[in-house]
From TrEMBL, chain A:
ABC transporter domain boundaries: 3-233
Organism listed in the record: Dactylosporangium siamense
Official protein name in the record: ABC transporter ATP-binding protein
Taxonomic path: Bacteria, Bacillati, Actinomycetota, Actinomycetes, Micromonosporales
Keywords: Amino-acid transport, ATP-binding, Nucleotide-binding, Transport
GO BP terms, alphabetized: L-amino acid transport
Automatic annotation (TrEMBL), chain B:
Listed name of the protein: Branched-chain amino acid ABC transporter permease
Keywords: Cell membrane, Membrane, Transmembrane, Transmembrane helix
Pfam family, one: BPD_transp_2
Organism whose genome encodes this protein: Dactylosporangium siamense
CDD domains: TM_PBP1_LivM_like
Broad class of where this protein is predominantly found: membrane
Topology within the bilayer: Multi-pass membrane protein
InterPro entries, A to Z: ABC_transp_permease, LivM-like
Residue ranges of the TM segments: 7-25, 37-59, 80-100, 106-128, 162-185, 206-229, 244-270, 282-306
One Gene Ontology term of the molecular function aspect: branched-chain amino acid transmembrane transporter activity
Subcellular location field: Cell membrane
One GO term describing the cellular component: plasma membrane
């Protein structure tokens, strides 16, 4: 399903973090939002997921309105509408086993526990381990599994490779890249361009709560990446700097 | 304490097996005290369910406890002499009270919950003291007639019979709660406690789960209120005062906030300290009359030496 964000302002307390963000992620596409610490990446995905209320603007997934300036849906309803978040820092439950994590997240749909364990076989060996007994890579796999079992139509990934060793980060990137080929709409936020480029060639840059594509496109062009102007126009729809 | 924690799954049946023969071992005074411990322990279990398992720290479970106690006492005064009927009615009244007050509690967190529940407890006690046509005000309600547990069974005329009835009820109710908490329902509550935003982002209506937990805890507290009337044959607003709320929270902290069995043990330790150690001539009589002082010392020791209590488990916030 296509994610459409129109003029979203959002923040915490008296401070505004996102300043009129416009973004479109077409159905089945993957888009990466790059930015430094404090750029507003996590606020962006939390606003889409309903954990932060949008102060103005609208967020739509397909035809479903997730948030407007008048009222936002509660986070659990947004999740049930098909939005799944893999949060920064994994956030697995320390007191629950892997099996309990999977059981709590499971809903009817294409993503079943056997399919998940086929994609992430390491979890199958850790079913009786609690969240606080997993390595960083295993916890990240579990966070992804938990999100997939909710049968998402849009997957939000908040720096999934953060804090992982090089080989584990490569494994996580591989899993995310595999997911993008299943037809799932994916929005990835990242600090590291190389992690993002391993997943998608659609990249935008977020700085101080404002989206642009300039920096990243020049970086990808330098590297001979495949980002094209048409794709950029699709993700920055309303005259944002390109 | 790790050995105690490992034994927790077996601990509850073992605890009941140990407690059962006490009816024939202890004298009347000790049996009565142990019965009071079980009643307070059931109330403490309801506090542990909210505070430790669901993450809603409460000082207000004395409210459904009082509601349950007055319901049971009123039934006794209307010649309803079947213990289980009194128990079910009191549990339903406690649960209903919690259902009505749930919107005030389940959307708040942390210290705010503590304050709201404290206010609910104090308001309920005040209403019990003022609504004289129903509660007889601060004079309290006498409920002399001893109930029969079930139709056809003998009435609970002796301390031993009352103890066995209370032990049975506590064993069944706490046992059922332990089974529920070992099911996915328990995992949902623990997950909501440890990562509420994560649960909401996974599509779980956390406020709904907390409402269910709050109502269930209200039912447990109401049932404890019914047992109080069975034991004391009397209820007054003082049965739900702040001192009782604090005592029960102390029991939960000492026993381990995440453990219902720990709450029972904590209640035992607290009441034993208050009623036995601090009121007898032990230690040359130096402790007599100083129960609050002894309890305060016990609490400080526990916080420093056993921050998770006797049976508590680590939560994600530690």
């Amino acid at each position: 399903m296509t994610l459409t964000i129109d003029g979203v302002h959002a923040g915490y307390g008296g401070g505004t973090v996102l300043h009129g963000v416009d973004l479109v992620v077409p159905e089945g596409a993957a888009l990466a939002v790059l930015g430094m610490n404090g750029a507003g990446k996590t606020t962006l995905v939390h606003t889409i997921a309903g954990l932060v209320k949008a102060r103005s603007g609208s967020i739509r997934l397909g035809d479903a309105e997730l948030a407007t300036e008048l009222a936002g849906r509660p986070a659990h309803r947004i999740a049930r509408a098909g939005v799944a978040l893999v949060p920064q820092g994994r956030r697995v439950f320390a007191s629950l086993t892997v099996a309990e994590h999977l059981a709590l997240s499971r809903r009817k749909g294409d993503w079943t526990v056997p399919r998940i364990l086929e994609l992430l076989p390491r979890l199958g060996e850790r079913l009786t381990h609690k969240g606080n007994q997993l390595s960083g890579g295993e916890a990240q796999m579990l966070a992804i599994a938990r999100a997939l079992l909710t049968q998402p139509r849009l997957l939000l990934l908040d720096e999934p490779c953060e804090g992982l060793a090089v080989d584990l980060a490569a494994r996580v990137r591989g899993v995310v890249a595999e997911l993008t080929r299943t037809g799932l709409t994916v929005l990835l936020v990242e600090q590291q361009p190389e992690h993002a480029r391993a997943v998608t060639d659609r990249l935008v840059h977020l700085a101080n709560g404002v989206l642009s594509a300039n920096d990243v496109l020049s970086a990808t062009a330098d590297d001979g990446a495949t980002a094209d102007d048409g794709a950029t126009a699709a993700v920055l729809p309303q005259g944002q700097p390109q | 304490m790790s050995i105690l924690r490992r034994l927790t799954p077996l601990g509850f049946p073992a605890l009941i097996v140990v407690l059962l023969p006490m009816a024939w071992v202890l004298d009347d005074y000790a049996t009565k005290t142990l019965t009071s411990i079980l009643v307070l322990g059931l109330l403490a279990a309801s506090v542990a369910l909210l505070t430790g398992v669901a993450g809603l720290p409460t000082l207000g479970q004395t409210a459904p406890y009082l509601v349950g106690a007055y319901t049971a006492a009123t039934l006794v005064r209307h010649d309803v002499s079947i213990g289980v009927v009194q128990l079910l009615a009191a549990a339903a009244a406690g649960a209903l009270f919690s259902l009505v007050t749930a919107p005030l509690v389940v959307y708040a967190r942390g210290v705010v919950v503590l304050m709201i529940t404290l206010a609910l407890g104090e308001l309920t006690m005040t209403v019990a003291g003022r609504w004289k046509s129903v509660t007889h005000g601060t004079d309290g309600l006498l409920a002399f007639a001893a109930p029969a547990p079930l139709p056809g069974l003998v009435t609970l005329d002796t301390d031993r019979a009352t103890y066995l009835y209370v032990l049975t009820v506590v064993a069944v109710l706490v046992g059922v709660m332990l089974l529920v908490l070992r099911s996915p329902a328990g995992a949902l509550l623990r997950a909501a406690r440890d990562g509420e935003a994560r649960m909401r982002a996974s599509g779980h209506p956390v406020a709904g789960y907390l409402t269910v937990a709050y109502v269930a805890a209200g039912g447990l507290a109401g049932a404890a209120g019914s047992l109080l009337v069975t034991v004391e044959r009397y209820v007054s607003p003082g049965a739900g005062g702040f001192d009782i709320s604090a005592l029960v929270l102390l029991a939960v902290v000492i026993g381990g906030a995440t453990s219902l069995v720990g709450a029972l043990l904590g209640a035992g330790l607290v009441v034993a300290t208050r009623d036995w150690i601090a009121s007898r001539d032990w230690f040359g009589g130096s402790m007599a009359g100083h129960a609050p002082l002894v309890l305060g010392g016990l609490f400080i020791l526990c916080v420093y030496l056993l921050p998770r209590g006797l049976l508590g488990k680590r939560t994600a916030h530690e």
